[in-house]
């Protein structure tokens, strides 16, 4: 179990973490999501004792990293895929790590098999593609057969087969009872892999929830309507509890006249019937599948540090 308790960290005048707390439970994959610069890596580095927080603490199975008796057996980490010595072969890199941590040769062979890099064991790490480097980092993380895994954007650079492999590996590790903390900035990826979600923006926790709850809350159908009679539209649903009407910005291809709205909580056929009986004029009426990515973007947009303001010209 990885417990993050009230972590705060400033770099100069920059607040990287502001009272961050959450738990990555045993037997679960915890997706750690946030836009660039949100504080994911800083939190993970603090959990691994690489950064000293200004306040709060991070505990691995109840103890700070510095107090772990056999760190590689307790927590394995992928922080930087390209951290291996460029001039060393993959095997020599893993062998050196194993030797300094009292881990035998057979485990080196095991993790090379698990991560699919046995056939390139003699190749220098500097010649590895980003995807192969990710596999090598994961092999190093697994060396000590750790009870906890901290994986910072492990799918970066992987091809679809590699992405699926990381997903299956995370699921299998959780099934074996390990705590897996997996960072990403892609909701679509995390939703397929994680049990729980921790969403962070500008160093603050925005939401901690389960994937199941997030999906149930955000992936429903909504209706999009464009009407020149917005007052009439509001009047139709004025007495309808559970139905919300939100004005939408105009999209490319929308009719020139009328105002666009999203209607949540209403059924397509019944709404069409109500519109017909009320003689509401509509220029467009469609059912949309709200995407998880949209919900996540809406949640984090206000706290995104790097947002493009201009379209590409
Ligand atoms: N060593 C450092 N010195 C100064 N500022 C730092 C340092 N490390 C991180 N920061 C700043 O702290 C904030 C959080 O950074 P962090 O790397 O934790 O974000 P992240 O969520 O991992 O982002 P990304 O997805 O881009 O990796 C950012 O504004 C970053 O610029």
From TrEMBL:
InterPro entries: AAA+_ATPase, ABC_transporter-like_ATP-bd, ABC_transporter-like_CS, P-loop_NTPase
Keyword Nucleotide-binding among record annotations: yes
Superkingdom of origin organism: Bacteria
Keyword list, A-Z: ATP-binding, Nucleotide-binding, Transport
GO molecular function, one term: ATP binding
Any one Pfam family match given in the protein's UniProt record, by short name: ABC_tran
The ABC transporter domain, residue ranges: 2-227
Record flagged with keyword Manganese: no
Alphabetical list of PANTHER family matching this protein: ABC TRANSPORTER, ATP-BINDING PROTEIN (PTHR43335)
Family per similarity comment: Belongs to the ABC transporter superfamily.
The protein, known as: ATP-binding cassette domain-containing protein
Naturally occurring in which organism (per UniProt): Bifidobacterium jacchi
Taxon lineage: Bacteria, Bacillati, Actinomycetota, Actinomycetes, Bifidobacteriales
